[in-house]
Design a protein that fits this description.
The chain is α/β, with parallel strands linked by helices and about 425 residues long. It is built from 15 helices and 16 strands. Strands 5, 6, 7, 8, 9, 10, 11, 12 and 13 form a 9-stranded parallel beta sheet that branches. The chain has a 7-stranded mixed beta sheet with strand order 3-2-1-4-14-15-16. A hairpin with a 2-residue loop joins strand 15 (about 420-425) and strand 16 (about 425). Helix 3 (about 110-125) packs across helix 4, helix 5 (about 175-190) packs parallel to helix 6 and helix 12 crosses helix 15. The longest helix has 17 residues, at about 110-125. The two termini are about 20 Å apart. The relative contact order is 0.15. The mean pLDDT is about 100. Bound molecules: guanine and zinc ion. Zinc ion (ZN) binds near residues 77, 230, 268 and 320.
């Protein structure tokens, strides 16, 4: 395949910037080139330096738009695409009333595969090139998810939810079948092409102690896999979880007891935490996942980013479709900004864009592969247009700095601001 040379403004991060004065944290180049070969970035830098080395490359000129690493969504639910915007309830009623009935539809392989196609279309339309998803309890849903990812050569992580109680019969596996099905799916998909498997006990409420033991066994036997679950999202949920595990010191201790906590563990929400739980997250390296639009939509509470970071915990950020209300990581940052405002914390635009690219990649242990535009990275790239709508364009007339432009994208941006998405070097539009 011929090389492609993308020209545009370039922003890529090296570490999380605290504020704009932390200029070592990122590289910004006004006129840049990124050379893509066989799905990888083989060179990036100033256009004048790079272009002469790539004379035979096909040139795609994205100026004046901004090239950035593709966005990474670290928590969402593939079978919930058609329950986004379901009215009126908080977590447990919302799960029982909308989500569980919807997820039963994914026992039908044809349905799962039809939704997968559209789900992946929507992800890339929103600039998301890697995501970590919960599939349904049915192995067919996982096959549909990874089959679609493979066709698009996308770096995707996902897994079958393990759930053996407090859900409709049609959604319940057993401790044994959840172990064997997850193991078979890991053998089939983990490490195949760009796929990664996440061992996915849904949450303590829908798993018996016997199933938690099986989840722990899977984690011990498959150290390369991610692990994902939910914790301390909602006060009624916390009380119910503790009532089911009366010996646990607190909610997080349930997962700790079964050996689930490690630095490949993603814990959705993690809002209402004791000091002991925060200390345990820091000790184990497990990662809370901030899901701003979801937490507001379900009235779950305010994620305390500063408290966790001060304890040395590394947080991820995500949409949590379908409790989340937008697939856009830009809109996720917008609502995240407001949640932190309510707690007198600040989400600076530079840190925000680092978070949804390199930061989330780092949490996933994938910073050597995705999340930056450095040579050697996989060529997952978004092209951002801060003037995508009339309102953005009007606002941008008064923007003078990169940070102002980024903040306009963070607050006003959505899928309309995604001028192009490249997955392993291939344009998606
Ligand atoms: N807790 C357990 N399952 C879910 C889910 O599907 N969505 C959310 N937001 N929380 C959960
Ligand atoms: Zn979730």
């Amino acid at each position: 395949m011929n090389d492609t040379l993308l020209r545009g403004r370039l922003l890529t991060f090296h570490h999380a910037p605290e504020d704009a004065s932390d200029t070592d944290a990122y590289t910004y180049i006004e006129d840049a080139a990124v050379v893509v070969r066989d799905g990888l970035i083989v060179a990036s830098g100033s256009f004048d330096e790079i272009a002469p080395q790539a004379r035979n490359a096909e040139l795609v000129d994205h100026r004046p738009n901004l090239l950035m690493a593709g966005f990474i969504d670290t928590h969402l639910h593939f079978p919930q695409a058609q329950v986004v915007a379901s009215w009126g309830s908080q977590l447990l009623d919302w799960l029982n009333g909308y989500v569980f009935p919807e997820e039963t539809r994914f026992q039908d392989a044809a349905h799962a595969s039809a939704i997968a196609t559209r789900f992946f279309d929507v992800l890339t339309q929103h600039g998301t090139t890697t995501a970590v998803a919960y599939c349904s309890v049915h192995t067919q849903s996982v096959d549909a998810y990874f089959t679609e990812a493979a066709q698009r050569n996308m770096r995707m992580i996902g897994g079958k939810v393990m759930m053996d109680r407090n859900a409709p019969d049609a959604l319940c596996d057993t401790a044994e079948t959840s172990y064997h099905d997850s193991k078979a799916l890991i053998d089939k998909w983990h490490g195949k092409g760009r796929a990664g498997y996440a061992i996915s006990p849904r949450f303590a409420i829908t798993s018996t102690p016997a199933q938690m033991e099986m989840a722990g066994a899977l984690v011990a036997e498959n150290p390369g896999c991610h692990v994902q679950t939910h914790v301390s999202e909602n006060l009624d949920e916390i009380a119910f979880a503790k009532s089911l595990y009366p010996d646990a010191k607190d909610y997080l201790h349930i997962y700790e007891t079964y050996g689930l906590l490690n630095d490949r563990m993603l814990l959705g929400h993690a809002i209402h935490l004791s000091d002991r739980e925060v200390a345990t997250l820091a000790e184990t390296g497990a990662h809370p996942v901030f899901c701003p639009t979801s937490n507001l939509f379900l009235g779950s509470g305010l994620f305390d980013d500063a408290r966790l970071r001060a304890a040395g915990v590394r947080n991820a950020i995500a949409t949590d479709i379908g409790a989340g209300t937008s697939y856009s990581m830009l809109q996720t940052l917008n609502e995240g900004y407001k949640i932190l405002q309510l707690q007198d914390q600040k989400l600076h635009a530079l840190r925000a864009f680092d978070w949804i690219t390199r930061g989330n990649a780092d949490v996933l242990g994938l910073a050597d592969k995705i999340g930056t535009l450095e040579a050697g990275s996989e060529a997952d790239i978004v092209v951002l247009d801060a003037c995508a709508t009339p309102a953005m364009s009007l606002r941008m007339e008064r923007a003078e700095t990169l940070e102002e432009e980024l903040f306009v994208l963070q607050i006003m941006g959505d899928d309309r601001a995604i001028a192009q998405t490249y997955v392993a070097g291939v344009p998606q539009k």
